[in-house]
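Protein: tRNA-t(6)A37 methylthiotransferase
Species: Halorubrum sodomense
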Amino acid sequence: MATYHIETYGCSSNRGESREIERALRDGGHRPADGPDDADVAILNTCTVVEKTERNMLRRAEELSETTAELVVTGCMALAQGDLFEGADVDAEILHWDEVPAYVLNGECPTVTPDAEPVLDGVVGILPIARGCMSNCSYCITKFATGRVDSPPIEENVEKARALVHAGAKEIRVTGQDTGVYGWDDGDRKLPELLDRICDIDGEFRVRLGMANPGGIHGIHEELADVFAENEELYDFVHAPVQSGSDDVLADMRRQHRVEKFREVVETFDDRLDHWTLSTDFIVGFPTEDEVDHELSMELLAEVRPEKINVTRFSKRPGTDAADMKGLGGTVKKERSKAMSELKMEVVGEAYGSMVDDRFEVLVVEEGTGDSVKCRDGAYRQIIVQNATERGVDVGDFLEVAVTGHNTVYAFGEPVDGTPAEAAGADDAGRVPGDD
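Structure follows.
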């Protein structure tokens, strides 16, 4: 687990982005430090409204880079003038705000502590179904905090899910270090049955399955895909972090899968579902990754074309076996990360661009910046509805929207008056026919 320090400058949009970053880090088991001097990583969310502000941002970045183990710079100035930080010799990672959590989490499993209990956050219910994992990845420090998998009985988790729904949850997020190995400690693969039982709870809600390593779900991927196909309550969304397109690197990482197993999981869900979202992660610059390995990762990304991609530049965690490996130079890692991030934006932009001019049933999950709300369609793709108050749109609503545009990593939608998407015969992704 890492400690973090966040500083935010500028408008309410930046403050909202920092809240999202902090929420993701806390969900991953990371904790705030008392200050930048005590943090494993400092995050500077920048503003660039006037020249004086730019000078202040550069000065603050220089100060943080000297006092903190690692610095991440995000926000408006990072995106518009990231080269200024490099020109000032500031040792920092320049990232879009939504890439920050994945970078800080370093490709590790989220940390669910032994005392983790369900939490209701607005209309989102967080349901930890197990603690620990069955993996022994060479780069991961999380395993030292969590140990081997410990799976409570199905009925216990179902009752917790039912309590969340009765308390007002419209979205249940099923979480764990590796949800795919739920039940392994009892010698049984229980995830498909658990999800089926949760979907049978009375009420109108959606369920999102949290991270499941490819090695964990491969043995149940056909049964699991059938459960997704049979339950409209389940978002058609799977987060399966492949981490590399090279079997040699995966072996050095001590991952429990190889590329072919990952492909088989993807192909099975492609066969069972008309449309679904694949989320995956890549670690760039692992110590044993050479140029050929990097190209294999790029080729896999281009071939599979996931709708959500986390790109993490490798960094050493104390006490892990990978920390003792001779690392690659920072320039090499930066160049490979940049190349993969550019491909990522192309792939994700293409996915969201394909939604324009279609209609979808969505759930309004939370408030956005200004007078906007964040919605999720049946495949858990993010759609922003602006001017929500005047449109009478509230968090927790189910509604039909027409997608009018996109901004690479999310789409914009307009509420559609009249027949709800369900009655119009929406498909598995919530798409309404006849609107092409």
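Remarks: The radius of gyration is 21 Å.
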